[in-house]
Amino acid sequence: MNRPITIYGDGKQVRDVLFVKDLIRIYDTFLNSKVPYGVFNTGGGNKKTLSLLELLDILEATTGKRSQLSFAEWRPSDQKVYISNISKAKRKLGWEPEIEPREGVIKLVEWIKKNKKIFS
Questions:
Q1: CA dist 4 to 70, 71, 110, Å?
Q2: Choosing a second label site near 54 at 20 to 30 A (CA), which of 6, 35, 85, 104?
């Protein structure tokens, strides 16, 4: 969208990422299981992670554009790494995310290109 981006910290902070189709799939898996109830952490887990800098690299490779970046001080309470523990979902439901972060970002970019008017 050609807007500048401010990164708080060094951009190496890591998050697990989950594409919406994998989220819907865990809902369906739970509803169709014999598990009567439960609370399950849902996220990308330790195999589906990205740093902010890696995300920007994927965006550049996908769009051919690099956003204007500025860096600011870390914000209080920012976590440098957050990864959901999804082991219970895997153990009880046989679920784990399938869509790789790169693939999910590319799909998101394609969707945004088709729906630019929403962001104007």
A1: 8, 11, 20
A2: 85
